[in-house]
Amino acid sequence: MAKPTTFVGSSVAIFLEDTANPGTFLRPCGLNSHTVTFSKNTQDVTVPDCDDPELPAWIERGVESLDFSANGSGILAAEALDNWWAAFNTTDSIKARIYVGKATDTNNGRFWEGKVHVTSFETSGERGNKAQCTVSVVSDGELTYNTVT
């Protein structure tokens, strides 16, 4: 049995486009955990049997839409605060990349790129601990799947 090639957890990451340098994507510092979700919205259609309409009908599903969302949480890094606030505090969608694999790994790195909205930017603090943050991102249109080159 061949051993699989695996990814380290920190290689799943949200990168935001640098507004000062379009086409350059930066990873805001501090997030320790990322969750990426792709989903389909479907329409159910009951299709009866033509020869015996009394038989139980099978449900077929057509895809209506595709969706993407991501969440991240971790330390609220001072270096990332302005980036997250600017990304949240706009009504325009922004370009982002969601990586699985290191952004420099031309053998195994992959990423999705497209427009997103930062829909949630939450900060929290507790005496004796570091300030925390949680962000939520949703797609604004199609994301393309790419190989790191």
From TrEMBL:
<protein>
    <submittedName>
        <fullName>Phage tail tube protein</fullName>
    </submittedName>
</protein>
<dbReference type="Pfam" id="PF06199">
    <property type="entry name" value="Phage_tail_2"/>
</dbReference>
<dbReference type="InterPro" id="IPR011855">
    <property type="entry name" value="Phgtail_TP901_1"/>
</dbReference>
